[in-house]
Amino acid sequence: MPDQAELLPGTLDLLILKAVSLGRLHGYGVLLRIEQISGGALQVKQGALYPALYRLEHQGFIASEWGTSHNNRRAKYYRLTSAGRKRLGEQTARWNRLAEAIGRSLAVRPQEI
Amino acid sequence: MISQLLARLRSLWRGLRHRADVEAEMAEEFRHHIALRTEDLISGGRAPEEAARQARLEFGHIESHKQNARASRGLRLFDTIGMSWLDVKLGLRMLRKYPGLSLISVIGMSVAIAIGAGAFGVIDSMLDPTLPLPQGDRVISIQNSNVRNPGNPNRQSLHDFVIWREELTSVKDLGAFMSDRRNLIIPGRGVELVRVAEMTASGFRVALTPPLLGRPLLDEDEREDSPPVVVIAYEEWQRRFAAYPDIIGRQVRLGSELHTVVGVMPEGFRFPINHRYWVPLKLDPDDYQRGGGPALFMFGRLADGVTLDDAQAELTTLGLRTAARYPETHAQLRPRALRYTRPFFDVDSPAIAWAFRAAQLAISVLLVVVAVNVSILVYARTATRAGEIAVRTALGASRRRIVVQLFAEALVLSGMAAAIGLTVAGVALTRIQEFLERASGSNGSGLPFWWDLDLSAGLVGYVAGLAILAAVIVGALPALKATGRRVQAGLQRLESRGSGMQLGRTWTALIVTQVAVTVAALPFAIYVAGETLRGAGTDAGYPAAEFVRARLAMEREEAPPAAHRAAYERAFEARFLDRAGELLRRLDADPAISGVAFASSFPGSEPYERMEVEGRGTHWVFINRVDVEFFSVLDVPIPVGRAFDSADGRDPAHGVIVNRAFAERLFGGVNVLGRRIRHVGRSTGAEPGDVEPGPWLEIVGVVPDFAGQLELRQDLLKVYEPAALADVAPVVSLLLHVRGTPAPALTQRVRQITAAVDPALQLHELRSAADAEREIRRIFAFVALVTAAVLLSVVLLSAAGIYAMMSFIVARRRREIAIRSALGADPRRLLTGIFARASAQLGAGVLVGLLLAAVLRGPVEGKGLLLLPAVAAVMMVVGLVAALGPARRGLAVQPAEALRED
């Protein structure tokens, strides 16, 4: 397993939005999907997941409905709303700008100053 | 935005209303999660029991997750204060149980909330609107403010503009504009007076909006020798040019010059205010002295990463440098960077912005007054529930729990009021917007492009805040008082009386204040509402339906270069008089027009001045300088004296005609012919002695009062002086008596005749006089309606408050009355005693109210004063009727029954 990184504050919501944008998921599924798409590099604390899911639902970025999971249990599934899709786009662009700026700053060598 | 708001409300609603279901779902979801994790661990090789233990361990403490989840749904606040759905349900039950109180409270608070919300909507759209432009919040205004006189900005800043455009780095694309009106003349499509922005090309860069067709204005268009070009709005292209596809390159006449259309802006574009035509601003600073030139509005876009404060800091540095270099013109001037829209509403200093906010706060205070009234009613009700409160306390309910319940009950009341108030405010704001659009559209301008009176998220938040404030006053305050130290005593006395709450001096003071404020304020409010309503119903006094009116002016240079200003002014005046005279002749000769008259003002819009009336002192009088034919064209009879003759117009010591109110108020209706008056102050602010008095003018006729003013009093003193065109130039009010009803075709024909005389001649506000009159009356009716709504809620609440307090006080003495009656006291004496006390309280209130009214009397005169005793009497009657019921019930109680109560 590759080295696991701590999530930066404020990034969990973005990752959840990304995970459910790929298809509807139940809570545990969101956890697994984030691990999967980060190549196992990011692991979400289970205690932080549900408050984040409920917050996003409360804010109207994701919506939920009850369905049946693969083991025939009743499960609550989350999907992205159109407001969530817009939010994901904005947050992704913001993250990319930030990452690029930090990357650029860290790559500077003394002779370039 | 709305969908997110709805999602929040839905989630909050479910969390409160279906708390048990939500908790059960949460538990089920957590169980499902742990089960799946357990299965994964088992398939990874763990023993089932160990896997289940590990999964639970990883998941963490379920209860704390539940709490965090509730906080995520915004329910923490409700959990902290301990409010539940049950409290809300109890509140709804109370609403049904006390319908009278609920109805009065909700009506009163709805009116106050609607007014507060309406004021917020209007003030907010003036102070901090969202500019519907790309990154609109980065667009700012810049102007020179005068340090000695901050409310009076100096806009003659052409030279500063040139410096700032060169040197400012915190603001990019600095631009400037001035507004003008020109006749748009398209052969075969009529003539129209349109609003034109003379703007620098940078304006289009600031607006960040590309044209739909063609190009925007370019910097080279601003050169003096560049050919005249114009950019037009999409709507004008559709309306005036029938969406002609080859519009680019076509020539149109704007006033005295032909312009080539070079671009069409996209739909809805109105930058910088409400403009639909843009021509380049062509100004050469060399033509003017420093501090001279036309008045300009300046704007720009903040450079990336720069804040308004940064821009202000740079401007301050530049401003101080200019002040040091040019002290004679700039010693007192300091440039200021402002939010874009503020200069247009003259909100150009922080003090003025604060004044607006203070006004908003003052309007919100209306709700506090109403809420205090409601809280008195609620307190009286709470007092009757002292027994219930005492029992609940004895059963272990904390004080906080009871206060929260009573607060929730109040929140239901104020929440309903907020919902109604918000709906009313929403409708009213839409109506105001429509009205303003119509009013501003009728003079060809339209509303500012950012002006959108609507239910914004900020407004909804403000109303929610008002509702909570009202609930605190209405529910929490009486609850705190009701659950205070007397609860124990209430419990002790519960069996015998049902209420142990004392009212004492506080209530006497409240009754006195309530009555006093009502007596002092009501007559004034009734007077205002009555007079405004009367204004709305007043007849114009002349057959307005048969008239078309307009203000005649002529296109001119905003500020002619200093070198040839005097010659320009002389030539302008001569040309204006010549063209206006020619226009009047042509209009008079038109078969559809039976008469033409001019005046300095339209009837009903006259300015006022100070005049000395021989032997009667000086008075404010409304003055109109009118054509000698004025009264005959308007069909206004002259019952006393004579009309003007042509000699009057030429004589400096001419005769004047006064209205009936003048003759009656100053001379008691006796013959005023031959009496003399004279001007003593030309400006409204001048006092006698400030100005050399004019020659004595003899009164030669009296006309009936006609054309009311937008003033409360309708019997205003009016004086009409004969005038020649030159006396009223350069802006002349024209009244055209038409044969038959004025039709749009006639106004178009009048415009064409005018443009044929000279394309530079402009007719402003050309419309039917009846429409103009109707608009004024509509304003009267709206003001009267709002005043009446406030009035009604105040009367309702005051009467209800006084009734509740008086009946509550007397009800508390019911047992005492019954026992004294049982012991043989004379019922009449008992009643006298009760009424003496009630009358003393009410009388004290009336007295204080009358004193207050005497201090605040102000504009209430004459008949208005008669309302004072009437209102005082009504308040006395309401109070005494309130006392009567419980007193009679006290007397009717059987002595044995009264004694058994102990």
Salient structural properties:
heterodimer, A: alpha+beta, 3-stranded antiparallel β-sheet, 4 helices, 3 strands, about 55% helix, B: about 900 residues, alpha+beta, 6-stranded mixed beta barrel, 6-stranded mixed β-barrel, 28 helices, about 15% strand
The pLDDT mean of chain A sits at 86
Largest sheet of chain A: 3 strands, antiparallel
CATH architecture of chain A: Orthogonal Bundle
| Strand order of the biggest β-sheet of chain B | 2-3-8-5-7-6
How many domains of chain B? Answer: 4
The CATH class of chain A: Mainly Alpha
Tell me the number of strands of chain A.
Answer: 3
| Main sheet record of chain B | 6 strands, mixed, barrel
**What is the H-and-E element order of chain A?**
HEHHEEH
Find the count of extended strands of chain B (DSSP E, 2+ residues): 21
Structural class of chain A: alpha+beta
What is the global morphology of chain B? flat
Q: How would you classify the helix and strand content of chain B by structural class?
A: alpha+beta
Beta-strand proportion of chain B: 15-25%
Instruction: Calculate the terminal CA-CA distance of chain B, rounded to whole Å.
Output: 63 Å
Broad shape of chain A: elongated
